[in-house]
């Protein structure tokens, strides 16, 4: 038998919150139920109190829909597909369906989204490269809707459970591989610097150069978004230099493919004239010519871990201590890397 | 002003159906509401009568969840991502969220799925390369949940609204392009023959050969699934022949990429030794080396059309006549095709 909850964990009742907010209990109830007929100022005052008191809806289990919400920063590329598959795997086993949303390029989903989630009461929310602002967190917390961030773009704070990959170690392993092949002039394509994963990968690259006693040339580090087009554009910039690098560590596989195109356009052969390492190990990495050496990020497993964690959070009465789990990356050596030409 | 409904369109009432089924009206109501506490035999008898009478729940609008269901045969590859994006675009504009399911390789989603859909009452269901069996159709119809099939695997029947692409014309255009380059020995990789789209593409290929006065060699047509692995395996089979084809029309882009790998392995250069045409025009087609000549299928636009159609169906009082819409395919010539070596 589980022990009964003690008095310490008791939270404010709905009536107490109504009194403190100077509204009726039914109004608090309306706010809790995501109803539209509440003035915005009243809603935010009540939400604030619900949050301050750590109010958690009782018996949340019983009123939940058999859904799990999955929110992407942007729905692009095979990357997202690997993640969707992981969440689908866990949802299917748990008898849940997946609601998919896109925060349409913004890094926090819109207010409408949060209201919709509060109204449909899913078992949990998995956010991919996407965060929640304070009011959204308060809204979900007040409904006992747990959330987990996968591969956070920013610093999610130590109280937000998150699943990531060892990005720094990946950058280190990729660059060490190039150093061991004999490269001394190694460029880096970086993803957006507001995303922590991009920074961690480039920091791993720097650490590999420094520990090998090689200079870090800041002009060889170029930054853009995670798409093919950026890899192509930044690749041309790096490869057109007189003193072009003999190897490049790309921020992800799509950037690496853009770099392939830039090299083709300039008549540079991979790996004879240029070695390339990617990041992610999307299916396409095996299919391109030459097959891409890359840092494997276990996206499907990460998504499964995030979905399992969010369901676990929903089952527990108290928040668990788990804050951040990082799954290991690993270097997959294929045919796009070789020693530099003599 | 819209005219008032006439007596002709009146359907059986719940009480009439209950009487005919020999059960109480509340039992019919339970079946309609997807409740579990009804014996399977009773449920199927009632469903049968609901279907026979063309029963449609009144005022369905009011009780719908702000959701649209999207069901895939399998969630694989960037192909699915293009489709998801199209449905998301339409859903976002309509203030709806998308529930994503996978029928896990089976061509009709499971019974549990249909019950879940009936219980959550979405605005509509878009099925991708996936069909519904009779009882599932009856279940959705009885709840006035409209559905549309996108790119059907089988023959969806003339009464099921569906959105497709001009697969036959695509196969014709791809093969004509190869014939015009001077190829006379052209192979074809086909997708699964149970999928109508595969058959239509290969039939277009045959028609191009026949109208050009070229023989159709059945041994040059090989069949497998739509994945990279199949393209590689079937590609090796075709290319290892003494009398290997000088050009191959692949069933889709992923098969074409598998064929690229087979050619690389055998030391055949594309397009010098082998011309390749794909189908779909996924983003990756532009990124591979050499960039792939392929038949563009407007997947995102098709998905948008399917989502809009299903929402239109939900708004209308009568089923519209629209049964099958095919969006045009178009040949995109890149660098994987050239005249055969002399």
From TrEMBL, chains A, B:
Could you tell me which Pfam families the record lists for this protein? LacI, Peripla_BP_3
Q: Which GO terms describe its molecular function?
A: DNA binding
Q: Where is the HTH lacI-type domain?
A: 12-65
Please name the SMART domains in this protein's record. HTH_LACI
- UniProt entry keywords in alphabetical sequence: DNA-binding, Transcription, Transcription regulation
The record's section on InterPro entries has:
HTH_LacI, LacI/GalR-like_sensor, Lambda_DNA-bd_dom_sf, Peripla_BP_I
Spell out the PROSITE patterns in the cross-references: HTH_LACI_1, HTH_LACI_2
Organism encoding this protein? Streptomyces carpinensis
Coiled coil regions in record: none
According to UniProt, the name of this protein is LacI family DNA-binding transcriptional regulator
């Amino acid at each position: 038998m589980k022990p009964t909850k003690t008095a310490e964990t008791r939270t404010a009742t709905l009536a107490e919150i109504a009194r403190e907010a100077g509204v009726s209990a039914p109004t608090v109830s309306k706010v809790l139920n995501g109803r539209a007929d509440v003035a915005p100022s009243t809603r935010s005052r009540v939400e604030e109190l619900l949050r301050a008191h750590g109010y958690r809806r009782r018996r949340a289990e019983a009123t939940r829909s058999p859904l799990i919400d999955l929110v992407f920063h942007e729905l692009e590329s095979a990357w997202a597909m690997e993640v969707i598959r992981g969440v689908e795997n866990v949802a299917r086993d748990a008898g849940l369906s997946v609601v998919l949303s896109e925060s349409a390029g913004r890094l926090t989903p819109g207010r409408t989204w949060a209201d919709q989630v509060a109204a449909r009461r899913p078992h949990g929310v998995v956010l991919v490269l996407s965060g929640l602002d304070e009011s959204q967190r308060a809204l979900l917390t007040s409904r006992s809707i747990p959330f987990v961030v996968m591969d956070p773009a920013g610093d999610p704070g130590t109280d937000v459970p998150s699943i990531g990959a060892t990005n720094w170690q990946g950058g280190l392993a990729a660059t060490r591989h190039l150093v061991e092949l004999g490269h001394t002039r190694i460029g880096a394509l970086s993803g957006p610097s507001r995303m922590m994963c991009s920074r961690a990968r480039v920091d791993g690259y720097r650490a590999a150069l420094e520990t090998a006693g090689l200079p870090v040339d800041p002009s060889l580090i170029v930054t853009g978004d995670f798409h093919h087009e950026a890899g192509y554009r930044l690749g041309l910039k790096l490869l057109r230099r007189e003193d072009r690098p003999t190897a490049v560590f790309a921020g992800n596989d799509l950037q690496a493919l853009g770099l392939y195109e830039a090299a083709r356009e300039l008549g540079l052969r991979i790996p004879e004239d240029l070695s390339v390492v990617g990041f992610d190990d999307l299916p396409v990495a095996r299919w391109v010519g030459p097959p891409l050496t890359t840092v494997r990020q276990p996206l499907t497993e990460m998504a499964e871990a995030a979905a399992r964690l969010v369901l676990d959070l929903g089952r527990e009465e108290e928040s668990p201590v788990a804050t951040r789990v990082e799954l290991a990356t690993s270097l997959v050596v294929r045919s796009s890397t070789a020693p530099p030409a003599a």
